[in-house]
Structure formats: structure tokens, C-alpha cells
Design brief:
Mean pLDDT is 90; it is low at 1-30. The protein has one domain (44-268): TolB, C-terminal domain (Neuraminidase), CATH 2.120.10.30. It is globular and about 45 Å long. It has helices at 7-17, 226-235, and strands spanning 40-46, 53-55, 58-59, 62-67, 79-82, 94-95, 103-109, 112-117, 122-127, 133-138, 146-149, 154-157, 162-166, 173-178, 180-181, 184-185, 189-195, 198-203, 208-212, 219-224, 242-248, 253-258, 263-268. The chain is mainly β. Strands 2, 3, 4, 5 and 6 form a five-stranded antiparallel sheet that branches.
Length: 271
């Protein structure tokens, strides 16, 4: 579905192929080490292994999930609904026609629920209480990946190194933020969450989450969740990539999961 090569890998390959014509005494300054943010698992919950996770927010104290429907999973559906943490099952409130749309990230703001689609350049708007459709809007980004909010703007990822801030009232873009890691553009920004003034983003097909300063786009830390990916795959061989970070601001709890994962993990880390 998403075949973007990370910019860091491209830069590494170009560097390896370049003939260094500098004198032997010239030494490049090493890139600064990115701080690794430690975490602890505080609780686990079941997760339906048929859910191809695309969005994962908390709204009014409940976990919600949106899912996609890749062609290679004939049974997969593009759904939205709250998750029963006792069973891992979704109470399905919205379903898109999978022949036309591939559901992506969601976000709640101002009593509305917003949902991206992958390649249609269309977002849908629903009433956050009844889930009745309230309209749709077009966006200019080539693809839709994920949404979060700072309670004022929607913040959208599209697979590139840029995040787009969108006015939720008229759907106009407010600004774009280029994300960089050690001065290099960091693309493949996927599922997003806004936590205490910072944007956290899953990196597509990697096992870590980056912490982004929204004032300048710099990645200021990362959380390595390889052990959770390993645990998910041991429990369910079909578990796919890490994708999903949710924050409950009232309880100060953080949850992570992945596509087709058997578990949701409640984790804690300094934030």
C-alpha cells in the first residue's frame, strides 16, 4: 500500500556511492544522537485481529478505531467505531464502500468526526454523537494517511515529510510543517497523536514513534516499540506493522496498537 522509501535510507545510499574528494584530515561532524524515550507497559487489552488499523484516537473517554481494506485482505473493511476494551471488538458506526474508498485516519474536534480516505483526496465529516454524515471536502495532498488535532486545527499526514494544518470549519489549509530528523527530511509519517504540545507519529513500516516539535518540525525524540511488535507477532503470526497511538488527556493514558494486532498496549513514558 505504501511504498515510500525513507529519506534517511536514500541519503545513506547516496553517501555510500559518492567518491569522497576531501583531504584525509577532513572529518565530518557526527550527527547528533536522537534521544530515545523509555517506556513501560502498564496494561494490555485484547484487539480484534481482523482490524487493519488506520486511525486510533480517544473521544469522551473511549477508544475509537478506523480501519482500511487492502485488496489482499478480501475480508477487510473500512470501518469506524468505538472499541470494547474487554473484548477488543468494534461497535461499528461507519462503513465505507470498499470498492470506492479506502478508509484512513480519523480525528474528533468540535463535535465532529473527520475521516480521511487514502487515494481519493476526499475527507468525510460526521456528527460525533450520531455518526450521521455531515458532508465531505477535498484536500490537495496526493494521499490521506492520518489525522490528529491540537483542539484548534486538524493535523494531517500524507506519507511525505510534511504535516498539513487544516481549519476544521472551512477545510482550508492553514500551514505546512516540514518534519526533519537531524536536519534531514523525515517522510513516511503515519498515524498521529497530539500529546501535551508535541506531535507523535508512527513511521510507516518501522517499529518506533517519533516526537515532533510543532514549532519547527524537528524530531526531538523517539520511542522504540520493537518489543511490542515482537510480542504481537509471537501471539499472532499475521500481525502487521505498528500503527496506532491514542492519548486520553483526562486520564493521561496512552495506548498503542498495530494493524491486525492481537493486543492494545497501555504504555507510559515521559511527555
Amino acid at each position: 500500500m505504501r511504498n515510500l522509501l525513507p529519506a534517511l535510507l536514500a541519503c545513506s545510499i547516496l553517501s555510500a556511492c559518492h567518491t569522497d574528494t576531501r583531504s584525509a584530515t577532513t572529518v565530518a561532524d557526527p550527527a547528533p544522537t536522537l534521544p530515545v524515550i523509555g517506556f513501560a507497559v502498564t496494561k494490555t487489552f485484547p484487539h480484534d485481529t481482523t482490524l487493519f488499523t488506520e486511525g486510533f484516537p480517544v473521544h469522551n473517554g473511549r477508544l475509537y478505531e478506523s480501519t482500511g481494506s487492502p485488496n489482499y485482505l478480501g475480508w477487510a473493511r473500512s470501518l469506524i467505531g468505538p472499541i470494547d476494551t474487554a473484548t477488543g471488538k468494534m461497535d461499528r458506526k461507519v462503513e465505507l464502500d470498499k470498492k470506492t474508498y479506502f478508509g484512513e485516519g480519523i480525528s474528533f474536534i468540535k463535535n465532529r468526526l473527520y475521516q480521511l480516505t487514502y487515494e481519493n483526496q476526499v475527507a468525510f465529516v460526521y456528527d460525533a454523537g450520531t455518526f450521521k454524515p455531515q458532508g465531505q471536502f477535498k484536500f490537495a495532498n496526493r494521499q490521506g494517511w492520518s489525522l490528529t488535532t491540537n483542539d484548534t486545527s486538524l493535523i494531517m499526514s500524507d506519507g511525505t515529510d510534511r504535516l498539513t494544518f487544516i481549519n476544521p470549519d472551512d477545510f482550508q489549509p492553514i500551514r505546512q510543517l516540514q518534519v526533519t530528523l537531524n536536519g534531514i527530511p523525515r517522510d513516511s509519517l503515519n498515524e498521529l497523536e497530539y500529546i501535551k504540545g508535541y506531535i507523535y507519529a508512527n513511521i510507516w513500516e518501522d517499529n518506533y514513534i517519533v516526537k515532533i516539535d510543532p514549532s519547527n518540525g524537528r524530531v526531538v525524540g523517539k520511542i522504540d516499540l520493537q518489543q511490542l511488535t515482537d510480542d504481537a507477532k509471537q501471539r499472532s503470526p499475521n500481525a502487521d506493522v505498528l500503527n496506532g497511538i491514542a492519548y486520553d488527556a483526562k486520564s493521561d493514558k496512552i495506548y498503542v496498537t498495530g494493524k491486525l494486532w492481537p493486543r492494545i498496549y497501555e504504555i507510559s513514558f515521559p511527555h
